[in-house]
Design goal:
mainly alpha, Serine Threonine Protein Phosphatase 5, Tetratricopeptide repeat, 2 domains, repeat, plastid, PSI_Ycf3_assembly, Photosystem I assembly protein Ycf3
Length: about 170
């Protein structure tokens, strides 16, 4: 039984049932169904903190998934998993790949901004103010891309942009 079908809570069970029904109703190939199952298994493992298992499932999903839009979300989740493991450089590699397949993934831009911001803070602690400013400028650029499609999201990022005077940067 796929991991995603072993969920304990009502919301996860409901989502799994709806996803399974959708896969049965919609015209999908066996390969697409398998890719979807691995992706869901990865999300389930990731939510439980089982990052190695999540990555294994995501990589299996990537080998099977052919739709570039769906691949962008798998790449995004791989990036999130690497971030959770503290592997920020590796996470950025995957977050950078997501927009190449889906030109408008605000969450990938947001997560890239969060990592850039984190690196800016690390540079401050190391006494590298010029480097920190460069990282913060990068964070600002990515947050603007995340905010543009839905200005009601990422309020903390919007406040940070205003407070730091970066709200007009890169416009």
């Amino acid at each position: 039984m796929p991991r995603s079908q072993r969920n304990d809570n009502f919301t996860d069970k409901t989502f799994t049932i709806l996803a399974d029904i959708s896969l049965q109703i919609l015209p999908t190939t066996k390969r697409e169904r398998e890719a979807s199952t691995y992706h869901r298994d990865g999300m389930s493992a990731q939510s439980e903190g089982e990052y190695a298992e999540a990555l294994r499932s995501y990589y299996k999903a990537m080998r099977l998934e052919v739709d570039s839009y769906d691949r962008s979300y798998i790449l995004h989740n791989i990036g999130l998993t690497h971030t959770s493991n503290g592997k920020h450089a590796r996470a950025l590699e995957y977050h950078f790949q997501a927009p190449e397949r889906n030109s408008f993934p605000p969450q990938a831009f947001n997560n890239t901004a969060v990592i850039c911001h984190h690196r800016g803070e690390q540079a401050i602690h190391q006494g590298n103010l010029d480097i920190s400013e460069a990282w913060f400028d990068q964070a600002a650029e990515y947050w603007k891309q995340a905010i543009a499609p839905s200005p009601g999201n990422y309020i903390e990022a919007q406040n940070w942009l205003k407070i730091t005077g970066r709200s007009s940067l890169f416009n």
